[in-house]
Each structure stands twice: as structure tokens, then as C-alpha cells.
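User: Predict structure, ligand iron/sulfur cluster.
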Amino acid sequence: MKTVYLETFGCQMNELDSELVRGHLESLGYRFAAEPDHADVLLFNTCSVREHAESKAYSRVGIVGKRKKAGEKLILGVLGCMAERDGVDMLRRYPQIDLLCGPGELDKLPMLIDNVVRTTAVNPPLANNIEDRVALAGNTSRRSAALSASADDLETLDLARAFDPDRATSGVRSAYVRITRGCNKFCTYCVVPYTRGAEVHRPPDSIVEECRRLAASGVIEVTLLGQTVNHYRYTHGVAVTLDGREQPQIGPGLSAFRNETIEDPNLTTFAKLLARIHDEVPELARIRFLTSYPKDFGDDVLQVMATRPRICRYLHVPVQSGSNRILKLMNRGYTVEEYLEFTDRVLEILPDASIAGDIIVGFPTETDEDFEMTKDLLRRVPFKNNFIFKYSPRPGTTAITRFEDDVPLEVKKLRNNELLVLQAEIGAAVHANWVGREVDVLVERLTNRTPVASSAPSVADPRITLGSRLTPKKTPHEDAAENAVQVSGRTPGDLITVFQVPTREQAQQLLGTIVRVRIEGSGPLILHGRMVDLTAALPNEIHP
Ligand code: 5AD
Ligand code: SF4
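Assistant: Predicted complex:
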């Protein structure tokens, strides 16, 4: 059986896709290698959202090309959004690519690999048809609004998820759960609606069941994923198989987001879905969701968050620009005033909520005045962080055909840097607010940093006798400091928190658990603290 190396570029949706692909292939007997040199099937799960991720993937494709030219027998597959967008054209430009698989077709990947293996195993290789090694939604990517029950294969991969029984002991106790695929928004700069297709919502029962099974396998935190996650809604009794199973459902028009439909008992809104997961899967300590769209985010969701303690008060809700003129050109569908009305409403109902976002600088025609407005908006909202991107024109989008990319790269860079500095100030203030408070931290990793600067003994150290080969004797304090390790995790509001644990063994034991930490210091992107009660958090056998 072949050994696979799978590398992921881009967003959380891709990370989830890769996890599902890996589980699927493992269940069929494939092994996985951590390094590309130790595998004979190389798979790149790619992203088209920004140019940077694409260039990285192409450079990897180039390296594989060289290895194949040098005679190595490798299979190269390009998965995800780049495959979907560039299509078979990519096979012509890069003959080293053996197979292409779009993000909506990943359930067909084993068949594609199999086809390539079979046709190249013989000598000379059998000519294999392009159709046998390509699975793309192609021009059907915006599936018909009447997505029929029988035509649906969009959920296959999610439903086939492997529930790893080692989760509980592996320390990785967070998982992504897809609730919606695709996007109906068509922001002019964005390639997602073309590569991932129209919005399709999974049936709530499937989602709750997936959460339940993840919890049973040891997961304590789920992050629900959708491009515009708050657009989730599912009308019952519409798409049902003959045996009564509900099927994924195409998203309604944006006009559906009016409050009067919320009470409809046949409708599962995003708020109702959150409440169901919270109430029906009590083993989950944290329920989070990504990414929110600032419009169509009703008070019903905020109320569910306010009354359900295990739903994290964390919103990633990209604003993209602080200029109404630019927001309009981006087709974002809201004004700065509406965005602020939303964030004010969030902070009124959930005063300790964390808000994060994305911003694009240098969108076509963006002037200094537009940029100043973005800075004003940043000063107005307590963002814990903002991902800042320089606009890059993406093939296939409206913006690339409609607007000239007229903001020089130098200006984009300057604006990018200026926003980073401003965001660091805002982030520092947000984080400083937590100093003196106690938070729950889900421990995720050892940071590889010794928390106290280890005092390497110098020759001037009186304990070192010249010519002696003995290790200098350390004070008990130095001993403790040298053994101590720093761990890092996240609060329910997604604030990264680091603290010290006496030994590496104890740190390992804490991975994947939630501990109480008293915050003693902060920076623009980080909280520093001290564990409140180490003995209570550790299993009996390793109590210090
Ligand atoms: N150029 C720069 N940034 C982009 N994003 C999406 N498309 C582009 C583009 N063409 C950013 C947006 C989005 C995030 C995922 O990527 O800020 O929220
Ligand atoms: Fe892209 Fe806009 Fe959809 Fe987000 S909401 S995925 S930016 S089109």
C-alpha cells in the first residue's frame, strides 16, 4: 500500500478537509508520512483565497516536478480550491500533476489515486483518460437551487468521518465540524463562491450526531465551520430521502434573514443549532464557530450565547474596510454604521466577548482618506486581533474584471504596516483588561521556551573551578527554573495564554485539559499567567 504525504494550505475549512481525507485514506489502508521525502503519494490541499498561498503551493509542485524528472516514481495530486479554479488547464501546464480533486469532490479521492496507481503500475504506463484522474464540480459548482436529495454527495466525506479513539489521550481534543459549505455572498474580491460553490447547509441531526460522536471520542472543544456561519438555516421536511433521512439543503436568498421566520418550528436557525449542540452534547466544554458575517446576525444568536455558558463568547467577524465607499465596491452588503451597531449590540449583550476580524488594505481605488476611515473604525472597536491582508486580484472574481489593481504595492505595504502597529496598540489594551482576572485555559502545546531566561553559567561564575569538568552545582531555585516549561493555550474568548508548569511531564499531562489561570501580565497578542491550583488540575499520580 502507498504512503501518503498530505500538506494543507489556507483556512480552517481546508484543515478540516485534510483531516477528513486523511481519515478516509487511512481507513482504506494508506499510511501517512510526516515528510514528503518518505512518501510516494504527495497531496497538496490548496487555497486560492490569496495569491501568497497559491505561490507557495506552486513552488511545492515545482519541487515534485524536479524529483519526478530525476526518475522518482511519485504520484502528485492537487486538491482543493486551486484545482477547482484552474481545472484541467493545470494538468497541461504542470505535467507532473497526476490528479486534481476539487473541495466538493474529496470523497472521490481514493478512486482517483487508485486509477492513477493502476494505470502507471504497468510498463509502459497505460494512457489514462483525464476524466479518470480529475474530480471537479466544474461548471456545476453553483449547483441548482433544487439540489435534489439523490444528487447530493456534498456530505459524504463529513459523514464518513473517523472518530479516533486515541483522541482523549493524544492531547488534541479540539475538532472542527462543518455546518455549511460554500458561500452566497459574492464579495467582489473573493474566489470562494466560485471554488466552493453555493451555500449548502447540513441537516442539524447530522451535525449534532457528529458532535456527540466527537465528544464520545474525547473531544472537548468543537468549532463549527461555515464561510458565513450565521447564515446557517435548515428547513425541515423539504429534502428527505425515501427512508426519511434529511439531506443537505441549498441556502435561501439573503432576504430570508428576517426576524419573523425565527419562530417557525420547521426551521432550524443558527441560534437553534447552537442551543441544540450545547444542550444535547453536555460533554463539550467549548462550542465555538467561524466565520461570522456582520449582517444577518440576530439577537437570537447573542441570547443563546448569553444563556449557554459553554458557548464561547468569541466572534471572528471580518469588517474588511472602514470606508463605506470601499465596502460598497467590495459588495459587502453593510455600512460602517451597521457594523458598529452590530459590535455595540454584541458588547451590550455579552460584555466580555472577544471580537476579531479581517481587513483588506489597498482594495482598488482605496485613497488615504478611505484608509484613515479604516483606522478610525479600528480605534472604535476593541478588536483582540485583526488579520490584515494586502489586496491581491484573484482570477475569476468580479473585482479583477471590474477594477484596476491601482494601489501600488509600496502603498499597500505601508498601510499594512500602519494597521499592524495600530492593531498592536488596540490588542494590547484589550489583553491588558484581563490582568488580575482568572480565566479557563484549554492547554494546547509546550512553547519550547524556557519561561525564565536560563542563566548559563559564565566563566566568571564563582562555582566554576577552572579546569574542573564537573557541572557546576545549581541553587534549588535555578534547578526549578531550568526544569520548568512554558505551555500555551486559549481562553474561551480565544485569547492566547501562556503560563509555567514545573516539569515537562506535568506539562504533557495538562495538554488537552482546561485549567484555571490567574492573569498577571499581557502583550498585544498574549496573556501571561500563573496556574491557580496545579494539584487540582493534575491527575493523582503526578501530583508534585
Ligand atoms: N485579497 C486580499 N485578501 C483577501 N481575502 C479574501 N480575498 C482576498 C483578496 N483577493 C481575505 C479577506 C477574507 C480572508 C479570509 O481573506 O479578508 O476575510
Ligand atoms: Fe468570500 Fe465574502 Fe463569502 Fe467571505 S462572505 S467567503 S469574503 S464571498
